[in-house]
Amino acid sequence: MTCIVFNKTGKLLDGFHFFYNQKEIEIVRKYCYLGIIFNAAGTFGDAVERLTDQARKALFKLQQKHLQNHVLTALKLFDVLIVPILSYCFEVWGPYYCKNLNVDNIFQSGDKYPGEKLHTKFCRYYLLGVHRKSCNGAVRAELGRRPLLLDLIVRTGKYWLTLCGPTPGSATIVNCAYSDLLRGATSSSKTRNWSGLIKHIWAECELSGVWENQGTKYKHKTICLLKSALYQIYDKSWWAQINSEDSKLRTYKTFKSSPFLENYILEFPMHARKEFTKLRISSHQLQIELGRYTRPRKTPVESRICKVCKGQAVETEEHFVMSCTLYSKPRKTFFAVLDSFTSFKTLSSAEQFIFVMSCLDGDTEIGRHVIAYINDCIELRQHTLSLSHL
Question: Which of 5, 37, 300, 306 could form a disulfide with 315 if both were Cys (CB 3.0 to 4.6 A apart)?
């Protein structure tokens, strides 16, 4: 038999002795109960770490199924097999990860949630095949994903609504505990117990009325409003993030305005689409990207010159696709194909670039030609650079 003496330090305190049936009870620093680790500090860090470790093992098993070319199936299995492990009892410990959540930092808060690292890793390496320096926001947006934290907050809101509408006359332990927390939250605006954190979430979503009324009879509609509010807040934050001055997604923002699953990811196997994905989200080996990581100082943008053509142009994604002389021959063939069944030649150069990078809003036939062209150019570039190093 064991017990925990809760204290702010989280350490084992001397001077405490407890007995049951004349036998001393062992005092421990942490204890696992119903799958959740409780520690002496009263925090859930150990519990979340254990859940993340369990989810990582389950994800390893899932990745052995080789579903990279079946993206919808892979995402569905992640949601039904991995997320439940990551978010076990989130309704209890999750709000403590939302205490600093607001409309200005929801993007960063989503990334800081412990389970998000596993989610993003699954999307980045397993489904898209891009490297670790690729932007989290772009990785999720290509797959139409948002941080797990958003849907888990919605789940917590749904749980809170059930606490606010107990059966008349009921006095369960959970209801009594919530009543105590509620008194603490209403007595002081600075209180950040579980109830106070729930109040904070509703307020940030501009749904304070739900909190003030302590629930609503329109639960389903209210939950839909909460989800919609969180998604809108995140999408605005996502857009602001990719438009920031130091963002590497200067090109991505020209053809991607919201997170949604791209059709080319569904239509083509990963080995074929991988280079196109890298080009879209600036996770490639062009000089515009490599120059970000030169040391001791990163190379100025205007000095990131293309090394495979005779011009002195900066090697951007647009230069690579539209004007680099090394790819003149495959580009001429590619443009001729597009001209044969679209109005491609009537567009300006900037419009043609967006046409190519968006595959005309996901057209499968155009996507097939675009991916073939990009792969040919990447292969030609690698071959040319390898010869220059001989």
Answer: 306
224-260 residue pLDDT tens: 999 999 999 999 999 999 998 778 899 999 999 999 9
Instruction: Give the pLDDT band of residue 170 (cuts 50, 70, 90).
Output: low
**Segment 61-103, tens digit of pLDDT:** 999 999 999 999 999 999 999 999 999 999 999 998 888 888 8
- CB of 131 closer than 8 Å to CB of 283: yes
Pair of tokens at residue 52: 């993340």
Of residues 94, 108, 97, the one with CA closest to residue 237: 108
Q: Is the distance from CB of 4 to CB of 29 less than 8 angstroms?
A: yes
φ, ψ for residue 324, nearest 5 deg: -60, 130
Asked if 286 contacts 382 with a C-beta cutoff of 8 angstroms, the reply is no
Chain centre to alpha carbon of residue 245: 21
Helical ranges in 25-168 per DSSP H? 45-63, 71-77, 83-86, 90-93, 106-112, 114-121, 136-142, 148-163
Q: 10 Å Cβ neighbour count for 248?
A: 18
Both tokens assigned to 12: 């084992």
Cβ atoms < 10 Å from Cβ of 115: 23
Query: Largest alpha-carbon pair distance within the chain?
Result: 91
Q: pTM of the predicted model, to two decimals?
A: 0.92
Domains in the chain: boundaries: 1-43, 44-263, 284-388
Tokens linked to 40: 């002496």
